[in-house]
Amino acid sequence: MSTPEKSKRWLKIILRTVIILAVLVGAGWGIRLVWKQVGPGLFGNKREEKIPTTKVRIANIAEEIIAVGRLRAVFSTELRSEVNGRIVKISAVDGQKVTRDQEIVQLDQQDLLTQIQEAERTIEATKLKVERAKKDHTRLVGLQTSGVVTIKDFEDSRITLSLAENDAAIAEARAANFRDRLTKTIIRAPHDGTLLLRDLTEGQVITGAAAQSGGTLLGEVADLSQLMVRTNINEIDVARLKVTDKARIRVDSMRNVQMDGVVKRIATSALESSVDRTRVFPVDVILEEPDERLRPGMSATVMFTLARAEDAVAVALSAVFSTAESVRYVFLKKGEGFAVHTIDIGIADTRYAQILTGLEVGAEVARIRPLEFEGEVPVGPAAITTKGSVKADATAKGSNADPTTPAPPRPAGGRRSDGSK
Predict the structure, then answer these.
(1) In whole numbers, what is the pLDDT of the chain averaged over residues?
(2) What is the 3-state secondary structure (H, E, C) of the chain?
């Protein structure tokens, strides 16, 4: 191999070596930077973190139960046919104002008319039989007085007359039943109101209310001047409600409109929820001033205000923690660290919890649990805090926490929380 070729070969080897060394140096520098960030935390020396905090302030708090339900008329009647039949005429339309006894749907009457004609012919035949039996019996009565007719013949004529009269009564009753069923082939409005008619078509066959399924629902006649929301409240919260309590109602299709309502009825017996099989009580809330745009069947949200606190000392709900014994506490900012500090809370809404004792306005607390506090946090004089030997000040000025203080009531439907963690 010539000298120039050897020189080129060594030049390539040196260049490759320089590039590989540069890549290794860069990778080592990157690994060093990453190690500075995550290395201490892997071996027990946690890296510094910035804990978000909030201050105790003055706020207005309203504890509420929030539930969902559907709009319905206070006074309404379902329309069902009492007899089976085929629809031949629909005389009203959905949304129409109707008056009492106004015709809405007519069923086919041909079969019943034929049965009525047959019953009338049967009545005529039974009347003739009764007339003949009566004449025979009258004739035998005269003959019996002269001793010509035996007692057996006389009793047979009397029984024949009674059977004929009985057959005539049965024929009359059967005809009356057919006539009554004929009147029921016309479904009329049971009272004044607005017709909420189902999607019916002429020629459709429907079943009567005597069927096992309850019959075909044709619609309902409702008085839309008074509307209500029927909702279900769980067994824990229902005890805190009473008739005449005020409520606020918001319909999903009219999110910007809020209406006032009043509790009209609280069921005395519970039902089993089909969702989570809990025990719930139906509660009816009547709208005080219903909007003409509202329709039965619309989804609505009902808010019951259980308690209200004006200008209360409050802290963000996310800053309140709880032990297994329902002792409430916060992580109070002290210097560069935090101390476990017990508190006594009152009512709570979706944002704030009322502070009864334990904190003053302006105190700063952590919004999340600091990394230094892991597992079950001891509450009391023996609690250890971060960055020093400061202990939890459970007996500090203004602190009067009672470990037996019960937790605030659980919200209806899981839509509200007291912030316990």
Answers:
(1) 81
(2) CCHHHHHHHHHHHHHHHHHHHHHHHHHHHHHHHHHHHHHHHHCCCCCCCCCCEEECEEEEEEEEEEEEEEEEECCEEEEECCCCEEEEEECCCCCCEECCCCEEEEECCHHHHHHHHHHHHHHHHHHHHHHHHHHHHHHHHHHHHCCCCCHHHHHHHHHHHHHHHHHHHHHHHHHHHHHHHHHCCEEECCCCEEEEECCCCCCCEECCCCCCCCCCEEEEEECCCCEEEEEEEECCCHHHCCCCCEEEEEEHHHCCCEEEEEEEEECCCCEECCCCCCEEEEEEEEECCCCCCCCCCCEEEEEEEEEEEEEEEEEEHHHCEECCCCCEEEEEEECCEEEEEECEEEEECCCEEEEEECCCCCCEEECCCCCCCCCCCCCCCCCECCCCCCECCCCCCCCCCCCCCCCCCCCHHHCCCCCCC
Q: Which domains does the chain have, with CATH numbers?
A: 53-59+309-414 (2.40.420.20), 67-74+224-306 (2.40.30.170), 109-184 (1.10.287)
Which residue is listed with tokens 């009864």?
356
Task: Give the rounded distance of the alpha carbon of 257 from its chain centre.
Answer: 21
> How far apart, in Å, are the Cα atoms of 21 and each of 27, 346, 372?
10, 67, 42
pTM equals: 0.57
Q: Are 45 and 397 in contact (CB under 8 A)?
A: no
Q: For residue 3, what pLDDT band results from cuts at 50, 70 and 90?
A: low
Q: CA 358, CA 396: separation in Å to the nearest integer?
A: 8
Identity at 104, one-letter amino acid code: I
- The answer to whether 377 and 335 have CB atoms below 8 angstroms apart is no
Give pLDDT tens digits for 101-129: 999 999 999 999 999 999 999 999 999 99
Over residues 249-260, the pLDDT tens digits come to 999 888 888 899
Q: Which of 371, 315, 362 is nearest to 338 (CA)?
A: 371
Sheet (strand 217-222) strand order: 76-80, 217-222, 193-197, 97-98
